[in-house]
Amino acid sequence: MKFINMLFSIFVALMFVPFNTFAFDDKKIYESQKRLSVGFELGTAEGDANVDRYGGLLRYNFDQLFQSATNIEGRFYAELSATYWDGKNGTTGNDDLFDFGMTPVFRLSKIGLNFSPFVELGLGAHIHTKSKIENEDFDIPFAFGSHFGLGIVLGSEKNIELLYRFQHLSNASLGDENPGINFHALQLVTHF
User: DSSP secondary-structure letter at 30?
Assistant: First the structure.
């Protein structure tokens, strides 16, 4: 958890660093930016939950919002995800479920290099096929998902992305129970 707190502190500090920022009047997308992305994800739960997840994602990348004089760019993308959670029966008697999510994400990237490191934040909605897995009873098959991610875009055309994501899912006390669950996930994404 100290690692996550440190990463979040760095992100917050970067948000308050003064940049000479200019907006684009012409919001046209760059030729080099790809509109759609497809990816695969592997993840594991943090803490007492013994749950792994596997899945895929589809993204729609919106136009660049801003670019600073120091080559920091900000943009949004929308992510649709489908993951399979694999656990043990535990006290609930359920050892698996499917999760479907829609998450808007804001990303800050360093551009102008042979690779582009980035940091991102997202908050979205998730629907589960079951409300229980292993020893976790979420009470309702709905959750909000928030995440913090760090990654790098690689390749001569910058079309390969590796991403680490820390994600928290919780029903925000909409149900009687709200145990929440945290995941550490790795994603491999290609842009086209």
Answer: P
